[in-house]
Amino acid sequence: MSSLINLTVFKKFLSSNTSGGILLFVCVILSLIIANTGLASGFNNILQTTFGFENDSIQLKYSIKAWIDDGLMAIFFLLVGLEIKRELVEGELSSPKKAALPILAAIGGAIVPAIIYSVLNKGEATFHGWGIPMATDIAFALAIMTLLGNRVPASLKIFLAALAIVDDLLAILVIAIFYSTELHYTYLMYAAALLALLVAFNFFGVKSIWAYIIPGIFIWYFIHHSGIHATIAGVLVAMTLPTTPDATESPLEKLEHALANPVNFIIIPLFALVNTNITIHGEMVSGLTTPLGLGIILGLFFGKAIGIFLTSWLCVKSKIANLPELASWKHMIGVGMLGGIGFTMSIFISMLSFKDPVFIEEAKFAVLIGSLISGFLGYLWLSALSKKKDS
Length: 391
Hints:
two-stranded antiparallel sheet; 2 strands
């Protein structure tokens, strides 16, 4: 049967994602160095510098930080949306049997961390941050999985990629439903009309990428002013991009291929550089033991591992799905640990959760610590399994 999706593009996507994870880590370290030296003040002044255009009708003048968080990250979400659609068309989410394990494991891996955080923060001013430990960072998680090489089954990498993609979709839904501000329905109607136009383009076989990108920019503008977070525009536009019924490279694949390197090597590292710019002080370290800090760290490490493992176990035991090929239950524990690397999306939700800058900084620091613990211990666990197998 002819392939709907050219899998070469997927391999390039994974490759750039994992390489991007290494650059992402470098940018985190650089950002922390800047924030804790004499460079901090000058760097923050640069981030608050505004540019753009505005008049009585159009508002497009924002700080550099806002352009990165709301503008460039919309392109990141566009790439995520393209990947989600491709996996739905053909891939680990294309049939109920294939999709069951990563989808249900991702749901379990999102619910348990949210419960842990909510229980610890019940009645606290920080309760609204329950969405922070729900996310998995695909770049970091796959980078660590790649460092393990052939010491883990290849099927485990595919499972983790599919799980992280579903996880991203859940995070997008959480942001859209729970972390959006007051809605302005006129702007939403404009965005909906343009989205309907893109759906019509798809239906009538319009293949030009620019026919989707140019209206997509206006959709971003209208959603940005509607009260829903602007990054959601990227996902909506991605879902309208057409695929092809054979191995011919589709507009979806062309755009995904064009965006993969800029997103993984420029946009996500820039986001990390700007948003892990955390000046570490005593109160922040002590904040790791507050309900906020503990909720995030325990949610990411224990919540993700327990949620992914337990849901997978229930799926397999009830014969809804099968374990990834050559993978054991001990491997699934390790994947659960790597799922606790929340980084990019968790930091993003942290900024949407609170207005108090102290809470935001403490949440970012807790995300950083929780992600490091999850990544480090996940790597050691899976590495130890391969050594035990070889001995």
